[in-house]
Amino acid sequence: MTSDIDTRIEGLLREEEDIRRLNDGHGHEEPTFLAWRKRSEAALAEKLGADSELAKQLRSLTFFYSPLIWTDSTVVLASDHQRSFDRSLNTSLGILTAALGSGEVEEADNSGSLPVLIDQTDATADSDAPSVTVEVNTAQLRQLIAGSEELTPSERGDAIAAIPDDDEELDLERVDRLLSVAIKSKELLAGILGWVLANAHRLDF
Fold first, then answer.
1. What is the 8-class DSSP label of residue 34?
2. Which of 13, 81, 98, 105 shows a CA-CA span of 20 to 30 A to 143?
3. Measured between alpha carbons, how far apart are the two ends of the chain, in Å?
4. What's the half-sphere exposure (Cβ side, CA atoms, 13 Å) at 145?
5. Is residue 164 classed as helix, strand or coil in its secondary structure?
6. By the 8 A CB rule, do 140 and 114 touch?
7. Which residue in 136, 113, 153, 114 sits closest to 194, CA to CA?
8. Residue 163 to residue 99: CA distance in whole angstroms
9. Spatial distance between the Cα atoms of 111 and 84, rounded to a whole number of angstroms
């Protein structure tokens, strides 16, 4: 059952370019986009539950620009809608990517906490402090970022997009994008640094 839903989500992600081409300033009204969004929300609700954090974030996205304050001189341009559409689409794709591979056990524990291992054997003569290693896999890192309240929707989408589907594709540019959001909170810092350090051997200097 889960594999069928994952296949649907993967299909939604493959439609990215088709949906992005609709972003002409009125893309949020296009039937093709509206159908894609409805299918995305349904797939996520079926996989993680309608009340899951990721599902709620997906439903809350706004793909058009709406000024906080309207006046007689307020003018909303197509370019304003295009920027909002692009940001929300990036976030949507990040959320869908984060949902892939998220098992029921991971979703049940929505606290955002990460496993931490304390290695007493690494204590040196100069310091009695044990080595602390944060272990977080790719799916958990995506969930952590997607659920962070310290990041804006755009930052969440960009950060998740910086995490490669294939760990071998990790490069310094992706690391730089991830580290730029790592300082937003201690939770993000620990999770992102832990994941980057675990994959640092893949980087080509």
1. H
2. 81
3. 42
4. 37
5. coil
6. yes
7. 136
8. 13
9. 29
The closest of 117, 169, 174, 114 to 139, measured between CA atoms, is 114
CA-to-CA dists, residue 40 to 45, 92, 138, angstroms: 9, 9, 21
Please, which contacts does 60-69 make with residues 24 or more away whose CB atoms are closer than 8 Å? Answer: 61/88, 61/91, 61/92, 61/153, 62/88, 63/27, 63/28, 63/33, 63/37, 63/88, 63/89, 64/28
Reduced DSSP (H G I as helix, E B as strand, rest coil) percent helix, strand, coil of the chain, to 5: 60, 5, 35
Give how far the C-alpha of residue 199 lies from the chain's centroid of Cα atoms, to the nearest Å: 19
Domain ranges of the chain: 2-106, 111-202
User: How many angstroms separate the CA atoms of 59 and 92, rounded?
Assistant: 9
d(CA 2, CA 106): 14
Whole-angstrom distance, CA of residue 182 vs CA of residue 111: 18
d(CA 173, CA 159): 12
Tens digit of each residue's pLDDT (9 = 90 or more) over 112-137: 444 444 343 444 445 554 454 556 77
Torsion on CA atoms 92, 94, 97, 102, rounded to nearest 10: -100
In contact, 144 and 164? CB cutoff 8 Å: no
Q: What pLDDT sits at residue 204?
A: 81
> Quick check: pTM over 0.90?
no
